[in-house]
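Hey,
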Amino acid sequence: MEIRVLVTYASKYSATAEIAEKIGQVLRQAGLQADVLPVNRVNDLTPYKAFVLGSAAYMGGLCNPLHLAERRNSETPEPLTSIVKTA
């Protein structure tokens, strides 16, 4: 069974989107199935065994759309959440 990973991001100036695409590429090279989507296009987490949330840091916090997505899915026991902030 192939492991499916969601790499999702909130990006104001596209730098975080570029990093998310690179993370997706590396995951695919490692043999995983990786979907890379902006956070506002993610509706269903059930197909994924893991996900990565990426955001630029704005005034020490997450980009607003990503913060809302993290809070919306905080009661889901799986998948494991990894948060990557980029400057």
